[in-house]
Amino acid sequence: MSRPQVIIIGRPNVGKSTLFNRLVGKKLALVDDQPGVTRDRRFGEATLLGLEFTIVDTAGWEDEDPDTLPGRMRAQTEVSLQGADVALFVIDARVGLTPLDEEIARWLRGQDVPVVVVANKAEGRAGEAGMMEAYALGMGDPVALSAEHGEGMGDLFEALLPHLEDDADDDEFAPFEDETAGSEDEAEEDAPPGPLKLAIVGRPNAGKSTLINRLLGEDRLLTGPEAGITRDSIAVDWQWTNPKTDEVRDVRLIDTAGMRKKARVVEKLEKLSVADARRAVDFAEVVVLLLDATKGLEHQDLKIADLVLQEGRALIIAINKWDVAEEPSALYNGIRAALEDGLAQVRGLPVFSVSARTGKGLDAMLEAAFALREVWSRRVPTAGLNRWFDDALEANPPPAPGGKRIKLRYITQIKTRPPTFVIFGSRLDDLPESYRRYLVNGIRRELGFGSVPVRLTLRSSKNPYAPK
Question: Do the Cβ atoms of 148 and 120 come closer than 8 Å?
């Protein structure tokens, strides 16, 4: 049964994202003292004293021209009210009612959605006056709470219950579990794959949000000519239909903030956004690095790609804005060559030319992403793995530095996602890095792992005669 939906609405900097984080039980939304941090809608699964619902954080409501960035943010907030069961109208109790609060209240009165007024930051005497002013809105008794300190949550429960209890299933009340929790043991690896967790990363203004909107077929994420619009990493659940087979596949699309050179990231908020994007990479299974065809491949793109591979995630390169690219053939070949030179640890990364504006190449990219996840999750039987290992050693025996033989005994795969192998032997500290690369390249080439990141560690047998 689908959960009822609760929307948080209010002007900037009244504590909407703090309340969102409090209700979902973890810091999903970025929070900062400056106004306008949230720009896209963020969904979370909330639990309040056993009452379960989907909570939606929205951008701060601003009275600006619709064509401006704040105006487009307000339009996103207006759309978010469609399908909601109840709206939480948040005001700042320490500031009291403002003209913008009254404008939002007038708009809410014209909507067919129940409204609960929340007077946030009401802790102490400083919030008493603002709490009293909230009655003037004529929207019933306001709820006084402190999202930051967790005060007043019982009163919020009582205010929400009449609007949500018909949708709630008392037998299913349970604390929300973190979907990212759990160890990557073999039982988990053998479970049927869930939705493809696909993160879109890249430099600012590469078209990441536009690409996701194109896939969804709606203006779900805020876009525009301004660089750096996206701040939070936003996850959207979606179903993709393979046009070749008509098979429907579940996808969790993750939009991220643009990653600039570290030296240029000086504002605290941008640092938080980039850190959030890095966490999104760690959560993803496959990552699409989106390039701008009008700018080509830059050093920062290689650094982002290297970060993805270091995290052990499968990587796809997508060259966006292909519909306006100049000399596309030369551009494609140049990017291919630069990737081979700049990412020596992985060869043959899949590269797609796409257009978020027209939809060109997006189905092929998604088909490759599912195939890549399958390879990324592959486990090689130990017997077959060691047959390959013996052949590799016979074809190119390890060196004997100083005339002393390095003995490699056997290999095993200890986990998947990413594929991780351990070689056991003796004197492995003396094994040259070039020989280790020879083995990793052989695993990729001959065992079918292709361009996915492969981890290989060396473990020496303990010497019982070594000094302790």
Answer: no
In the chain, which residues fall in CATH 3.40.50.300?
5-172, 186-376
DSSP track, 335-366: HHHHHHHH-TTS----EEE--TTT-TTHHHHH
C-alpha 416/C-alpha 191 separation (Å) is 12
Q: Where in the chain is the domain with CATH 3.30.300.20?
A: 382-460
Query: Does residue 141 have a known ligand-binding role?
Result: no
CB 421 within 8 A of CB 413: yes
320 is in an annotated binding site: yes
What is the full per-residue pLDDT of the chain (468 aa) written as tens digits? 578 999 999 888 888 888 998 898 866 544 444 444 444 577 888 888 888 899 988 877 766 555 554 455 566 667 778 878 999 999 999 999 998 899 889 888 888 899 999 999 988 787 888 888 888 888 989 999 998 888 898 899 989 988 887 554 443 333 333 333 344 444 445 555 789 999 999 888 888 888 988 898 877 654 444 444 444 567 788 999 999 999 999 999 988 766 755 544 444 444 544 565 677 788 899 999 999 999 989 888 898 899 899 999 999 999 999 999 999 999 999 999 999 888 877 888 999 999 999 999 999 999 999 999 999 999 999 999 999 999 999 999 999 888 888 999 999 999 999 999 999 999 898 999 999 999 999 999 999 999 999 999 998 866 544 555
pTM attached to this predicted model: 0.65
Residue 14 assigned ligand-binding role: yes
Two tokens at 354?
């796409």
Tell me: is residue 255 an annotated ligand-binding position: yes
Domain 186-376 has CATH 3.40.50.300: yes
Flag whether 32 is marked binding: no
- At the second CATH level, the architecture of 5-172 is 3-Layer(aba) Sandwich (3.40)
Q: Tell whether 189 is in a known binding site.
A: no
Alpha carbon 327 to its chain centroid, in Å, reads 33
Residue with structure tokens 């709490």? 131
CATH topology of domain 382-460: GMP Synthetase; Chain A, domain 3 (3.30.300)
Residue 259 marked as a ligand binder: yes
How many whole angstroms separate alpha carbon 305 and alpha carbon 349? 10
120 labelled binding-site residue: yes
